[in-house]
Amino acid sequence: MTSMQAQRRPDKEKLRWMYSQMVLIRTFEERVQQDYMSGKLVGAIHVYVGEEAVAVGVCGQLRKDDYVTSTHRGHGHCIAKGLDLRRMMAELYGKVDGQCRGKGGSMHLCDLERGMLGANGIVSAGLPLACGAALSANLRHTDQVAVAFLGDGASNAGAFHESLNLAAVLKLPVVFVLENNGYADATHIRYAARVTNLADRAAGYGIPGVTVDGMDVLAVHEAAGEAVARARSMRTPTLLECKTYRYYGHYVGDAGQYRSKEEVEAYRQKDCISQLEQRLLQEGILSEGTRREYREQATEAVEDAVRFAQNSPIPGPEVGLEDVYVRY
Amino acid sequence: MTEKERTLTYRQAINEGLRLAMREDPTVILIGEDQAGGAGCDPGLRDAWGGPFGVTKGLIGEFGPERVIDTPISEMAFIGAAVGAAMTGLRPVTDLMYISFVGVCLEQILNQAAKARYMSGGRVSVPVTIRTTTGAGMGVGAQHSDSIYSLFVHIPGLKVVAPTTPYDAKGLLLAAVRDDDPVIFVENKMLYNTRGPVPEGDYSIPLGKADVRRQGVDVTMVAISRMVLVALEAASALEKEGCSAEVIDARSLSPLDTETILASVKKTGRLIVVDEDYPQCGMASEIAAEVSSRAFRYLKQPVQRITPPHAHVPFSPVLEQCYLPDARRIVECAQGLMTKTAT
């Protein structure tokens, strides 16, 4: 129990890490949005602005060798899991130094060395993969866990239901982190489901289901700590629903006509970074000086990543034909 | 060659291949529905089925439930889990009970298994083997009788093998499990009880190599899976009429051994492709196109495709037999090619 209690009360260092990570994700995403709108980036990009507390609160409970499967809105998970910012940005730019040599893009960022099995362009597809990673950990007798991030939309897909049941039946150390931001593309979850708390669905599979305020990184961190501990020590999966919000549209460029300015503003008032910042300032864990320092560090790290990406070469045509098979 | 050749059924040969693969490598697991069978029932029934067709029978006894994993009926989840396990250090062998069931889990094969290596820039491997069954002839209707392996051949990133003999089944199974790419391993249900020589111990057959099952000079027959047996039957009948047919068992559909096929056609000048899959956009069309574009000047006659019609497999046994290509059709086709003047 001592280790679980320690996880519930993050120390100053962990709190500062959470703050700096959330700021870094926000800064990265704002820059991505800006570069997309000015035509430097192309394709389908989904930014994580507003939801930072979920990725950071959860990944703050993970080890480097724990596994994560991500979603189409995956940059935040990648950063919180420790992926290299330069190579992430180079991937978004489609450059040869990108995480995937420019062949994956925003929706397919991955880095096995950091346990990131991949962002995913298919809603709900990461859940079975996370089950498999957890199965692999069980068979190799490690105590690694797997986290599957998913959205509220994915919780209506078949793979969600099959995966929760499979994880329960096979005793897989998985935490299903449901980022309920209220919208599947442009459709509200009120329309698409008849339960208020999507975590209630866990009961149907005989596993714990927990709902937390996803705008409160400490609440996420605490609940994730319990879920990760259950997975690691008892091989019990958990469905952890984090109620959150995305400040921008579904994809960069989506005007979001399906929701009101007032609604967006109300969530911005509860901003996860501001909340933590105020608390840390009050508690003296952050000073006005260190606050500015973290923000400047984030800006510089993102600038550096953009410079790296812009200077990286475009992949040669031969790269497009490589990696279809190991050999054929 | 050996003093007394041991024979096994096709079913036993695959079972032995799995057993050897699992003994050799502790990361090889079986995961799917009823791989043991009887899970959750009386413990004495733990190996009640040993796979829906008895192919994995007895393996749980040697390797235990940790490595022979029964799952709920959740192809999306367990084939996806096999892919995720393959990404993270295991070599799972999973089981899509009938190829017709692919509709419920194609996502995990098309978008995850097949694309992971490519989309990661070569940093992720998916060494998964997906066993599946094909074939009409059992009277089980259209949803349990497809042979739609061409669907997988169509997809970059997947390899596809379809062994005909027990010998090839064991050797290709071992090669498939050891391969670092996802391999679809196609078993025709009608072959399970066929018997043939299978050496004990370890051997593997490289993916991408066809087998010339019978030498001939007048006409080349390229056949797939059970249709190889039908083609061989036709070749024997033709021999009595003085027509010498060469029969090639494609064995590996992706990669396809085009060189062996082309070499044969250059010798015979005539090609019949025999396939149990649907005709449109299938292997027969693919092989016909390759040969037509790469060996056109050697062809004495147009390439012929013998397949079922573009229709579903009927239930009624009489209709089902009419549906399937048989030796008579192949013989008549070959006779036509031998007598007609070149077009």
What features would you describe in this structure?
In chain A, the strands form two sheets. Chain A has a six-stranded parallel beta sheet, with helices on both faces. Chain A has 328 residues and is α/β, with parallel strands linked by helices. Chain A is built from twelve helices and eight strands. The longest helix of chain A has 26 residues, at 12-37. Residues 1-7 of chain A have low confidence and may be disordered. Chain B is of the alpha/beta class. In chain B, 35% of the residues lie in helices and 17% in strands. Chain B contains twelve helices and 14 strands. In chain B, strands 3-2-4-5-7-6-12 form a seven-stranded mixed beta sheet, with helices on both faces. A five-stranded mixed beta sheet of chain B has the order 9-11-10-13-14, with helices on both faces. Chain B has a two-stranded antiparallel sheet with strand order 1-8. In chain B, strand 13, helix 10 (283-294) and strand 14 form a beta-alpha-beta unit. In chain B, helix 1 (10-24) runs parallel beside helix 7 (166-178) and helix 8 (227-240) packs across helix 12.
Write the layout of secondary structure elements.
The complex is a heterodimer of chains A (328) and B (343).
Chain A: H1 2-8, H2 12-37, H3 52-59, E1 67-69, H4 75-80, H5 85-92, E2 116-118, H6 126-139, E3 146-151, H7 158-169, E4 174-180, E5 183-184, E6 187-188, H8 189-192, E7 209-213, H9 217-234, E8 238-243, H10 261-269, H11 272-282, H12 288-311
Chain B: E1 7-9, H1 10-24, E2 28-32, H2 59-63, E3 68-70, H3 75-87, E4 91-96, H4 106-113, H5 116-119, E5 129-134, H6 150-153, E6 159-161, H7 166-178, E7 183-188, E8 195-197, E9 211-214, E10 219-223, H8 227-240, E11 245-249, E12 252-254, H9 258-268, E13 271-274, H10 283-294, E14 304-306, H11 317-323, H12 327-339
Parallel strand pairs in B: 2-3, 2-4, 4-5, 5-7, 6-7, 10-11, 10-13, 13-14
Antiparallel strand pairs in B: 1-8, 6-12, 9-11
Helix pairs in contact in B: 1-7, 3-4, 8-12, 9-10
